[in-house]
Amino acid sequence: MITNTPLAYEHGDTKLEGLFVHDDKLTTPMPGILLIHEFTGLDDSMLPHAERLARQGYAVLLCDMYGKGIRPKDKAEASTQAHIYKKDRTLMRARAKAGLDALEVHPAVNRNRLFALGFSFGGCAALELARSGANLTGAISFYGYLNTPEPCRPGAVQGRLLVLHGAHDRVVPMSEIPIFEKEMHEADTDFRIIVLHDAGHGFANPTHENDPATGSWYCEEAAEKAWKTALEFLARN
Known about the structure:
single chain; 8-stranded mixed sheet; Rossmann fold; alpha/beta; globular; 6 helices
């Protein structure tokens, strides 16, 4: 049975509250996935993703990037919160690392098989966490921001990276891909980029509103393609 339980943890003086999701029928330590939310925060749209991963045998911590009780009511509030971390990538990395630490010490988790997976803002956080040299077997970004003011050092990334990107995304334009590729090549990183030519930003989020100005829409077919690739990546690693 898939269960979800609030999990309190901290980052310095900041109290955080994530959600731990796993199959309680599994008794051996499971590979752990830190699942990082979009800019809208830890909302209901993330739970189906966590449950999907839990059904595959992973223990998932829905990470709280903003703080306990900070749940944006609208896009304006969400943008204000996300901007704090987008402009301070050191803080973004440290906040994500606090979630990874909480996941790693959970008794249901195999601390030698840890992954980060995020969407949009969360995809950016997953990649920044990997750039920081965190103990990750792999990291996956669904339409995450690819740029960074702090490019990774050679050898810093411990695991493999998978980037899933929509060709029509205007939030994260295709022009960011060659810059990201150059950074990863120079850092001698094992990475793979999959461009979905029938997708834009937010393609895996059913609650996403269609927005031609930002190239954003939900696409079930693209989402399933991306999930198939992501699950294969996780299984291989």
